[in-house]
Specification:
alpha/beta, Rossmann fold, 5-stranded parallel sheet, binds adenosine monophosphate
């Protein structure tokens, strides 16, 4: 099965020059979704205590991964979405800054964590999550993505951590 057949590319969305990788055709197909999940799991070296996933498209496979791995699920969200006390990290966007938040009790020191998102682009998002987890003294087992836009060299921000992407563009 070629999973790229289930990724719809939308030119110039959400702004000119960006080719948006739309995973909703994949999510519509249960067999392709199951296959993608197995591919995401293929290089995970367990055990994993928590799956940390980024708002919002990281949540789809993040929760499936957590269930398969017998791990807890941790949502990372944009500011002021999480109701309890949070830790937060600012990161640079192409224009300006943004912030990500995680509940303060979500990940404990020494826990083995898998970080999942749909797309690794510039790596800014994943690098911010990396910093939050390192500050929590978590052990990052793997950065895990459905797609990597390799020409943007995002994995350079993830240091020595293992980075697995199912599809490369
Ligand atoms: P970055 O911080 O640049 O690595 O961007 C990663 C985040 O932005 C992920 O949460 C993706 O969902 C989203 N993203 C970035 N580029 C794209 C793209 N071309 N298509 C779909 N989502 C993208």
């Amino acid at each position: 099965m070629d999973l790229k057949d289930f990724i719809r590319e939308i030119p110039d969305f959400p702004k000119p020059g960006i080719s948006f990788k739309d995973i909703t055709p994949l999510l519509l197909d249960p067999q392709a979704t199951q296959y993608a999940l197995q591919e995401l799991l293929s290089e995970v070296e367990g055990p994993v205590d928590k799956v940390v996933a980024m708002e919002s498209r990281g949540f789809f496979f993040g929760l499936l991964l957590a269930k398969e791995l017998g791990a807890g699920f941790v949502p990372v969200r944009k500011p002021n979405k999480l109701p309890f006390q949070t830790i937060s990290k600012g990161y640079e966007l192409e224009y300006g800054m943004d912030t990500l938040e995680m509940h303060i009790d979500a990940v404990k020191a020494g826990e083995r964590v898998l970080v999942h998102d749909d797309v690794l682009a510039t790596g800014g998002t994943a690098a911010a999550v990396r910093q939050m987890l390192e500050e929590q003294e978590a052990q990052i087992v793997q950065f895990n993505f459905l797609m990597e836009l390799s020409f943007l060299k995002g994995r350079d921000y993830l240091g020595d951590h293992t980075t697995h992407a199912v599809l490369r563009y």
